[in-house]
């Protein structure tokens, strides 16, 4: 079992602390989604002029970079020039760090019919995927926002280059937000799923929210059965904790959630 975490869970940590704690807690890799307040990490010196030094420090700690998580939203009615520039910046980092994946979002399609939205997605993935592929990287569409349902993702994946585009299965959202059973998600998208995000939650009707995130294994998302499904299906990718402390400051600190996650997941293996 290969474990990683996104840096959403430790939004205030500097790079050296991220590396040190990742190794200390028993992770195998880090998924970069911002460092110390800067979400576009390619703008930071540590991932620009000092990128080789950063790569070497991560390797020296016995770690890998499992994914670079971009902010790119593939669906857009406007030009995608900015998306192309961001993908190229991350793709160059992928080549240097020997990281295979760049996470992208589908985004909101509000005001657009689904069939048209699918064709826009396919067209944009053709352009964006070609850029990533030049550097040996692959874009991963996360099951998120208006692209949470496996059927909606399938409509896109059947029309794109499988060497340039894959799927990131956020184990939480299709189950919690779309009411999908994990077996159905896997049966529909399994051939494209190459990466996962792991998080748990519990429904609290009186809380004013549709759900509340909680530590792994303390909610009612069937994480154990999801892991068993992935394992017996031959999945060999990362199980990446997405602890959304950046967006939900009330969540417990990373120095509690991160080691707890490693302990929980290792006991499943």
UniProtKB/TrEMBL annotation:
<dbReference type="Pfam" id="PF01261">
    <property type="entry name" value="AP_endonuc_2"/>
</dbReference>
<protein>
    <recommendedName>
        <fullName>Xylose isomerase-like TIM barrel domain-containing protein</fullName>
    </recommendedName>
</protein>
<feature type="domain" description="Xylose isomerase-like TIM barrel">
    <location>
        <begin position="19"/>
        <end position="249"/>
    </location>
</feature>
<dbReference type="InterPro" id="IPR013022">
    <property type="entry name" value="Xyl_isomerase-like_TIM-brl"/>
</dbReference>
<dbReference type="InterPro" id="IPR050312">
    <property type="entry name" value="IolE/XylAMocC-like"/>
</dbReference>
């Amino acid at each position: 079992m290969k474990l990683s975490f996104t840096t959403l869970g430790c939004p205030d940590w500097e790079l050296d602390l991220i590396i040190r704690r990742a190794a200390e807690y028993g992770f195998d890799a880090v998924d970069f989604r911002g460092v110390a307040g800067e979400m576009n990490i390619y703008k930071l010196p540590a991932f620009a002029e000092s990128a080789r030094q950063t790569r070497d420090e991560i390797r020296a700690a016995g770690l890998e970079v499992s994914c670079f998580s971009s902010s790119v939203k593939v669906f857009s009615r406007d030009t995608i020039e900015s998306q192309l520039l961001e993908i190229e910046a991350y793709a160059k980092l992928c080549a240097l760090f020997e990281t295979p994946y760049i996470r992208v979002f589908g985004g909101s399609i509000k005001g657009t019919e689904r069939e048209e939205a699918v064709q826009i997605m396919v067209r944009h993935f053709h352009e964006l995927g070609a850029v990533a592929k030049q550097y040996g990287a692959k874009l991963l569409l996360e099951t998120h926002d208006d692209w949470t349902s496996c059927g909606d993702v399938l409509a896109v994946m059947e029309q794109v280059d499988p060497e340039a585009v894959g799927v990131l299965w956020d184990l939480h959202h299709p189950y919690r937000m779309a009411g999908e059973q994990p077996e159905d998600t896997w049966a529909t998208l399994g051939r494209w799923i190459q990466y996962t995000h792991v998080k748990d939650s519990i429904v609290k009707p009186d809380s004013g929210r549709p759900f509340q995130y909680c530590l792994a294994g303390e909610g009612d998302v069937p994480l154990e059965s999801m892991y068993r499904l992935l394992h017996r299906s031959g999945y060999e990718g990362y199980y990446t904790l997405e602890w959304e402390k950046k967006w939900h400051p009330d969540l417990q600190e990373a120095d509690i959630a991160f080691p707890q996650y490693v302990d929980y997941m290792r006991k499943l293996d």
